[in-house]
Amino acid sequence: MNAITPFDFEGRAVRVVEDDAGLPWFVALDVCECLGIVWKGAGNSGSLGALDEDEKGVVTTDTLGGQQQVAAITEPGVYKLCFRSRKPEAKRFVRWLTHDVLPALRRTGTYSLDGAEPADPPPPAMPLAPQHRADVLVSASRIFGAALRTARQMRVPPGEAMRAAYMCARRHTGVDWQEELGADLLPALAGPASEGELRRGAAMQAADEFRAAWLDGSLGLPDLPVLSNDAFAAFTDWCARTGRQRVPQYAFVAALTGVGGMLKSRHRYRIPGEPRQRDVYTFLIPLRQQHPPPGQTMENWLGECIEAWRGAAHLGNGARC
């Protein structure tokens, strides 16, 4: 994790830290206070109970008592909390997040143009009122971001992904970011990947390789539903043994479920001889193994799958959030 950056939302501090993959984590207590959510802890029965395990975690932050670990949530987790809220603060928070925080993080992140400050844009071909011009630029920024995220998910090389997103935004809005920023961007977009991009690409490739090796049986893991925490624990161990770069859990889950053949779903389960789980947990489920055998309940079958998976992966009792 990198240094924490505080952002101001209507007089309240929201602390954000980027992980080694360049993805932002938001201090959960700060987000809940901004959304008017009473803080009841980060557990399944607390304020973050609606979030999946891969949408929450912990980060290290400086406090008056020294460095402490605090609950944090991912960008998708923040959106989920906002969309579940009916309070007016939620809509303002989403706008603030998408217009101020995320653009600021991306300007200083992997894809920034080092040392280049935005210049005054030249006048557009068809003069627009300042407010309308701002709306067009916001639309272009959103389209660029959406296209870039999609290209990354499709494993498009970083330079090609940036160029495709640039052309997509220009095609749909007429905005030429090369002119707006007063810089010749295309050579930079086609240039070699940065160290951070290479690290992130290698980590995502490791997740893809683990998924393929699991499903083709070469890892000796059963082709059965598994708790996402248990799958991530096995992936972490595999990365350590093979010298591969590990991605965060939420990126690992996205890699496994983003290309077909596997889905993410939340269920209760019951392991034979143990009490029934009252909370729901996130499972990774191969599409060819979605349903229990005839005459068996989903809860009992998932409990048996967990035992089989942990035994094969030597996970003991696994990790539960």
Low-confidence stretches: 109-130
Radius of gyration: 22 Å
Note the total helix count.
11
Helical content class: 40-55%
Mean pLDDT: 75
What is the molecular shape?
globular
Element order, helices and strands?
EEEHEEHHHHHHHEHHEEH
Strand sequence of the main sheet, in spatial order?
1-2-3-5-4
Q: Give the number of DSSP strands.
A: 8
Question: What is the count of structural domains?
Answer: 3
Largest sheet: 5 strands, antiparallel
Residues in β-strands, percent: 5-15%
Q: Helix/strand-derived class?
A: alpha+beta
Distance between the termini: 21 Å
Q: Would you mind describing this structure in some detail?
A:
The protein has 321 residues and is α+β, with helices and mostly antiparallel strands. The protein folds into three domains: 5-107, no CATH class; 130-193, no CATH class; 197-313. The protein is built from eleven helices and eight strands. A hairpin with a 2-residue loop joins strand 1 and strand 2 (12-18). The model is unreliable at 109-130 (pLDDT under 50).
Provide the fold topology.
Elements: E1 5-9, E2 12-18, E3 24-27, H1 28-35, E4 56-63, E5 66-74, H2 75-84, H3 88-107, H4 130-153, H5 158-173, H6 177-180, H7 186-189, H8 195-215, E6 226-227, H9 228-242, H10 249-257, E7 262-267, E8 281-286, H11 298-313
Antiparallel strand pairs: 1-2, 2-3, 3-5, 4-5, 6-8, 7-8
Helix pairs in contact: 2-3, 4-5, 8-10
Pfam families: Bro-N
Domain Bro-N: 1-109
Protein name: Bro-N domain-containing protein
Structural descriptors:
single chain; 321 residues; alpha+beta; 3 domains; 5-stranded antiparallel sheet; 3-stranded antiparallel sheet; 11 helices; 15% strand
